[in-house]
Amino acid sequence: MRTISIRGLAFLSIMSLPALSYAQGLDFPYVNENGEEIFGKDYVPQSAGNLSLPLYIARPNAGIQVPDDLLLFTQEAFRPRVQDLSLPNEPAHRQVPATVPLLRDIRQQFEPLQVPRLQFHRQQVPEVTSVSASIMRVHYVFVGQGAGAVVELPCGIAVIDLGGEYGSGDGKVDGGALFVDYLKNFFAKNPQYNNTIDTLILSHPHADHINGSDELKTSGLAVRAIVDNGQTNNSGTLGRQSAFRQWVKDQGGQYAAVELARQTTATGVTNAAIDPFACATISAFWGGANELLSRSGYENPNNHSVVVRIDFGQASFLFLGDLQHEGAADLLAQYEENLGVFDVDVFQVSHHGADGDTTDDLLNVLSPRIAIISMGTKASTGSPSAWQYGHPRLTTLKILQEEPVIVTDERNPAGHFWGAPAQKSDFKNVDISRAVFGTGWEGTIIVTATQAGEYSVSTLGFK
Predict the structure, then answer these.
(1) Is residue 379 part of a domain?
(2) 107 by DSSP, 3-state: which?
(3) Mean per-residue pLDDT for 59-83?
């Protein structure tokens, strides 16, 4: 088997891997031993540069309370070389702290927000209806092995990732088509949204998160803004992300690149593309970290995932993309003085429940009440990638349910599902007593939240 090295890391050329079902027939320059596309010698991400809107300080409903007047300044304004803060035509200049290194001193000047913990209420939810001004819904759509979510707000629609598993022939899953079909059906039943996605956020350039991009282009749906991790190239799925970004811009849409190098404060970032809504708050974190490519683990696009937090009154949701253990640990280290921004009630489990990517340290910061796993089914003909990768892993399910840190709410009654002990191994039965839900177990999952922070969970099955 032929290997290629870049900056001390080893990569496998796809030409030497003849039978990887996930990558079969796709334009992946390099893949790892699991069949995931990775960066390599001739396949290195570039920055989106000045193509993006400026990034501003976000203010999620947790963590640090940032003064209103600082929200008017871009992240760039807080870099150490900047001597003063001033708005155009503003006569008085306010001094910037003498030293404002990345993710440090600025947060120490502000008081943390105290967000009360709220009770969990379960009720039946209709399949798809318009939402009132007091509730929102997140649809975690079954897309096989992959991820795609529709965020249904009273004031508009956000989409996070586009699914899903590749497949062809009888019994195979085409997650991209599943997701776009779900979107089209949703808009048909909810004409008040005018067939328009207000913002579409791609966590990272991997096929199982971007597979629906081609179908979306021909769906007749409009996209007003696109957000991604800023990574750019002409080939592989990086090329697909770059082309989709350009398509949205060509339709008049706005664009935001969430790149670690462009973030100066530990508050998260926002702008008109990331958060176009008046009824909710969307904040973005982490994202493309091209400066870390020489570090172990960062050859994988998973660790360059855009992390998204959504606040709706006292309700809170977090999407971790496919952050692996290296990226998750570095995320906590980079935002260590403002970890409250990751304290949420509902989170999408990173990397489809992979082994080692959900830890007690991460759960302790999130303190989640509900966990959602987006993954494939265990049927070898219907979702072969779930079996190939071994998702969700039994070790991850154990971490989510056993002390010292657990998903705090319970399922009533408990569920009886399955997990994988390893890659390419037979799935094993497992009891789920906590509020952990999986698209590969139950099909599309809808979490409804009120502004008071009350939640209900319904499942639609695989229809």
Answers:
(1) yes
(2) helix
(3) 77
